[in-house]
Amino acid sequence: MLIKNAEVDAGLNPEINVYVPKNKFADFVISEALKQNVLDRGYEIPTPIQDQIIPLILDGRDVVGLARTGTGKTAAFLIPLINQVYNQRDIRVLILAPTRELAVQIDSEFKLFAKNLSIYSALCIGGANMNQQISALRRNPQFVIGTPGRLIDLEKRRIFKFSSFSTIVLDEVDQMFDMGFINDMKYVIENLPEQRHSLFFSATLPSKMTEIINSFL
Ligand code: AMP
């Protein structure tokens, strides 16, 4: 299912592209504790990408989200995935981001939504202390968030296996391409379990991405 954030028409005035969300956060079928964390974060009205994609992810559907930074795409995948883990504690989620900064942002947002839910993350990025990351991974957190190079390095040291993740998010895939992570992405995808929940986010979908989308979804 492809969700294009920019091409939404509320059907009001064709001159003005206003999006009227169908849902409020209070309407989503997510646990009350998570709903409270979303409200505490100050979110009441979902952004267009959140409004459209959260119900699909809650349904376990694979998605391609066409959305750039600033659209609320991080919460669009974190909220339903935290809910999935809340309901089924053996789900393990891997989130791949192109830059350390983005991985840190995702992890900070994650911590706010996962507050008091006993759901934890390990942040695995280059340029940071590897021993701390290894101890975080050994505690077997439900979410692992990181950059491709460091994650592959840790996997090759047998600290964890890509095959142990049942849900995978590739975020800002166009940036991953631009930064030369194409072979790293292919390596990760090849080592994922065949049965999985796959989420793909990119600001653009150039034709060079077709192969990776086909192998991923
Ligand atoms: P992102 O595109 O995920 O980087 O989010 C962009 C910014 O929008 C972040 O500062 C979020 O905290 C904020 N944001 C995301 N979703 C909402 C929402 N539903 N209501 C208010 N702010 C939001």
For the report, how would you describe the main beta sheet? 7 strands, parallel
Largest sheet, order of strands side by side? 1-2-7-6-3-5-4
Form type: globular
Quaternary assembly: single chain
Helix and strand succession? Answer: EHHEHEHEHEHEHHEH
How much of the sequence lies in strands comes to 5-15%
Walkthrough of the structure:
With 217 residues, the protein is α/β, with parallel strands linked by helices. The protein is built from 9 helices and 7 strands. It has helices at residues 32-40, 48-58, 73-87, 100-113, 130-138, 148-156, 173-178, 182-190, 210-216, and strands at residues 2-4, 63-66, 93-96, 121-124, 143-146, 167-170, 197-202. Strands 1-2-7-6-3-5-4 form a 7-stranded parallel sheet, with helices on both faces. β4 (121-124), α5 (130-138) and β5 form a beta-alpha-beta unit. The longest helix is centred in the middle third of the chain and has 15 residues, at 73-87. It is globular and about 50 Å long. Adenosine monophosphate binds at residues 43, 45-47, 50, 69-75.
